[in-house]
Amino acid sequence: MYIIGITGGTGAGKSSALKVLQELGALALDCDEIYHELLECCSEMVAEMGARFNGVSVNGKSDRNNLAEIVWNDPVSLNDLNQITHKHVSNEIEQRISSFAAQGGKVAAVDAIALIESGQSDSCDMTVGIIAPQEERIKRIMNRDGLSKEQALSRINAQKPEGFYRENCDYILENVFQTQSEFEEKCTEFFTNILEKERA
After folding, report:
1. Which ranges of the chain does DSSP label H, i.e. alpha helix?
2. Coil, helix or strand at residue 92
């Protein structure tokens, strides 16, 4: 199993890169999606979050909006949340990759904002950082999540700067394209070359 780690800040284009890898036959694992799935079905994770963050767990379910307001404005709280969620998400990823491998799968792609910090990158054969100009990221976040410019900028500032990905990733893909399809074309070319080398 060849595992590709995708990381980068919100609004940079990680989802587009993951979509391309899925189209190329990889098992696509979006850690954010898995986290939201676990919020619905992993009572152990929800209980841990409720014990740490007062008022975010109601009847075994998490109030995601309340939680987001807490962690995006408090680095300590964000770190505490990550400590809780990373272990549960990592366990789920391992199970899904094992199942895919048992079915003959050869390549998996893991999309995670905190790929490096969580230690998930240690399980990857290569890591790719997706970066984009801040103004473009702000526009995408505003359009995608219905946030104000100030809220979008707050989320960007709560995450690692571009230099972090340049220093810690094996490859960097810059999303400076005007359209999503143009960036996906670039991703297709890049990952096709990577996978061809791996299969050679």
Report:
1. 14-23, 31-41, 43-52, 64-72, 75-102, 134-145, 149-157, 162-168, 180-199
2. helix
CB 8 within 8 A of CB 170: no
User: What's this model's pTM, rounded to 2 decimal places?
Assistant: 0.86
pLDDT of 101-146, one tens digit each?
999 999 999 999 989 988 899 999 999 999 999 999 999 999 999 9
Report which residue type is found at 183.
Answer: F
Q: Which DSSP symbol is given to 30? A: E
Place of tokens 């800040």: 9
The 10 Å CB-count burial string (b at 16+, else e) for 51-77 is eebeebbeeeebeeeebeebbbeeeee
Structural domain spans, the chain: 2-199
Give the fold, CATH level 3, of 2-199: Rossmann fold (3.40.50)
User: Lowest mean pLDDT: which of 47-51, 59-63, 136-140?
Assistant: 59-63
CA distance 4 to 145: 27
